[in-house]
Amino acid sequence: MDTKALNLNTTETNSSIVEDIDIVDLPKGESVKSLPPDITIEEYWEQNNEFINGWDEGHKVCLAYRSKFSGRKLVKEIEDFSWYTHIHKHEWEAMPTLLKAQIKKLANKVMPYGKYLRIYCDNESINEMYDDSVDARLAIKSVLDRQGINMLEGDLKNYKRYCIDKQIKISSNLKIAFIDIETDDRHDGIVIGRDRIVSFAYVNQDGDEFFYKIDEDTDEAEEKLMQKLQKVFQDYDILVTWNGTNFDVPYIRERFEKRMGYRMSLKYIAHIDFMKRFQE
Q1: 205 burial class (0-12, 13-18, 19+ CB within 10 angstroms)?
Q2: DSSP state letters, the chain
Q3: Among 19, 26, 181, 240, which is disulfide-ready with 200 (CB 3.0 to 4.6 Å)?
Q4: What does pTM read for this prediction?
Q5: What is the pLDDT of residues 133-144, one digit of tens each?
């Protein structure tokens, strides 16, 4: 990891810091004014070593965290992590030579690992954004399936594999919102995103209660409500719902697209659906 200083060329003016910087290693969105002088990249990540959420963007691993310096939610991107799976070594040894060659061609690297064989390969199809793609992981899985061989931990997403290997810490000071939305029920049935969101309420981890509703039945009033809802997602780290996977979250995203012109990203906030947890 680069340990050079962040080149914070700053001057003091009336107790305020004027920035004059050229930083390529600092995470996008970080506030330079909030950083201590002469901090190094290594020291920055030693301070920001607890994460809120993770996801994949193709082969890239993304981890969300709240900066200890600026308080902002930011993202650490890992470009060079290579995903892998295992099979038992005796299964590999019993495999026909032609199939071994096929797997080696598809893989980035194949190497022994104790009583297992570790197979490094590209893994984008595990991400819902790439459901229709056939990458190396799926191609190798197809070869192994024909031999009746299971890929061990082959269903792990890139970021989960990375977090396990690197023993990534989960933030110990998470801000939690237990949230529920209400929609216009003057129409028959429920169609995701069809009708207005008329109110939402949430309770935070400290037991504080909040309730917001539209003042009138207009697009402008709903837009103001959407802005308040967006601020909740920015301020909190975990969103807890009941049936939110099937209702609240997709409904919010659809209404944002209709009212605000874009689909709100929920990557920066972890989501726990208690109904799904109880069903499991």
Answers
A1: middle
A2: ----B--EEEEEETTEEEEEE--SSSPTT--GGGSPTT-BHHHHHHHS-EESEEEEETTEEEEEEE-TTT--EEEEEE-S---EEEEEHHHHHHS-HHHHHHHHHHSSEEEEETTEEEEE----TTSGGGTT---HHHHHHHHHHHTT-PPBTTT--HHHHHHHHHTPEEPSS--EEEEEEEE--SSSS--TTTS-EEEEEEEETT--EEEEE-SSSSHHHHHHHHHHHHHHHHH-SEEEESSTTTTHHHHHHHHHHHHHSSPPP-TTSEEEEHHHHHH-
A3: 181
A4: 0.76
A5: 578 999 999 999
